[in-house]
Amino acid sequence: NYPKNRVFVIGNIRFKKVNKKENDKNKKVNIVFTSQDAFPEVLDMFLSTIKKVNNDYLNYIIKPHPADNINEIYKKIKKMNLNDKVKVMTESIDKVLEITDILISYSSTTLLEAIYNNIPCIVINPYNTDPPGAPIYNYSPYFKDEEEFSKFLEKLNKENLKEVEIPEILKINE
């Protein structure tokens, strides 16, 4: 019984459990990066790193934040000559998580949504500061520079995804 002019929708109130498809060992690893215009250096680090990586087992997907300027993301992809290597998905996060093998971000609720769906996460941080302190930073691979991050991606495939599996302490069972 609240007046409609006093109720403000500020975002998701709960996360949705997605029906994730079973991993096929013969398919590529879908790496999803969630971007945010507020942290442009993170997108730059992601794109710069994947430009260096030569791994045919990986598909790179960018899921822009709903408030992101998608044209700017496309411009950066084109400028770095990555049109054939990166796909941008604007579908809902639920649809994107259905195909996600690993989620990469800096500071985003999508990290929590991925954990909720038992999807491994990687945190990248090009800043010389400590991360905001969410539990994911204590349990996920965490990269502060492109060299370490690119070495990790070079060796990644369906066979060794266990290296980025979510620890039992964070897994959410129904």
Describe this structure in words.
The chain has 174 residues and is α/β, with parallel strands linked by helices. 29% of the residues lie in helices and 14% in strands. A 6-stranded parallel β-sheet has the order 3-2-1-4-5-6, with helices on both faces. Helix 1 links the parallel strand 1 and strand 2. Helix 1 packs across helix 6. The protein is globular and about 55 Å long. The two termini are 33 Å apart.
| Number of beta strands | 6
Give the CA-CA distance, first to last residue: 33 Å
Tell me what portion of residues adopts beta-strand conformation.
5-15%
Number of helices: 6
In which range does the helix fraction lie?
25-40%
Average pLDDT metric: 82
How would you write the strand order of the largest sheet? 3-2-1-4-5-6
Shape: globular
What structural class results from the helix and strand content? alpha/beta
Low-pLDDT stretches are none
Q: Give the biggest beta sheet.
A: 6 strands, parallel
H-E string: EHEHEHEHEHEH
Radius of gyration: 16 Å
Key phrases:
174 residues; alpha/beta; six-stranded parallel sheet
Task: Provide a compact summary of the structure.
By secondary structure, this protein is of the alpha/beta class.
Secondary structure topology:
Elements: E1 29-34, H1 40-52, E2 58-63, H2 70-79, E3 86-88, H3 93-99, E4 102-105, H4 109-116, E5 121-124, H5 136-139, E6 142-143, H6 146-154
Parallel strand pairs: 1-2, 1-4, 2-3, 4-5, 5-6
